[in-house]
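Per-record layout

source: Aquibium carbonis
name: DUF736 domain-containing protein
length: 104
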Amino acid sequence: MKIGQIVKTANGFEGTLHTLTVKASLQLVPTESDNEKAPGFRVMADGIEIGAAWEKTSKADKPYLSVKLDDPAFPAPVYAVASVPADGEASDLRFERQKKKKED
């Protein structure tokens, strides 16, 4: 389900997060790290860090962002994805509840 939208900017991405309980402006700010597993972006909402995003590539060789959002008010972290939009274009931020693993 769609929970927001992002637009590529010269300094990362900007967008919105909109659910029944949260409405916020987002900024995805690039990070600097030599660790290849570190997130490529900090996710900020109204100036407060609420998560991180990693640049990944799908099996179909399409770039996308894997986003983890967290807040003390959330019962658990929210995981979302967005395709990487072209400059000035928008991409939906999409959430899908993770399925519980079956027990053996």
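summary: The chain has a mean pLDDT of 90. The radius of gyration is 14 Å.
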